[in-house]
Amino acid sequence: MIIKNYTPHEVNIVLENGEKINLPSVGLARCTQTTVPDGVIGDIPITKTRFGEVEGLPDPEKGAFFIVSRLVMQAAKNRKDLLVPNEIIRDDTGRIVGCKSLANN
User: What is the band of 105 on the pLDDT scale with cuts at 50, 70, 90?
Assistant: First the structure.
């Protein structure tokens, strides 16, 4: 079994025993997006973003799982080989520094 990271950043998993597993990005899976006007409040434009097809996600591979964003996982509901970082760990400033686990659909 292999896990490939298709997010734009390294995924750092911190196990209960303190061991760290670092999974570098090997590609980028994203949803297409379109932004459309939706009015104004005063002088500030209001828009809506619509998300579409998944791009950059490889076809399933036997024995492989792919780490993706939650948005990509939700858009590709038929895929059972997708994982997302879960149980997020933040530093003192609120910046994400890792996760404790990966979650699937």
Answer: confident
Q: Phi and psi of 66, rounded to 5°? A: -125, 125
Strands 64-67 and 30-41: unpaired
The set of residues, in sequence order, having a beta carbon less than 8 Å from that of 97 and lying 6+ positions away, is 12, 89, 90, 91
Asked if residue 46 lies in contact with residue 38, where contact means CB atoms within 8 angstroms, the answer is: yes
- What mean pLDDT value characterizes the chain? 96
User: Would you call 84 exposed, middle or buried from its count of C-beta atoms within 10 A (0-12, 13-18, 19+)?
Assistant: buried
Q: Which of 91, 102, 43 is nearest to 67 (CA)?
A: 102
Q: What is the pLDDT of residues 48-57, one digit of tens each?
A: 999 999 999 9
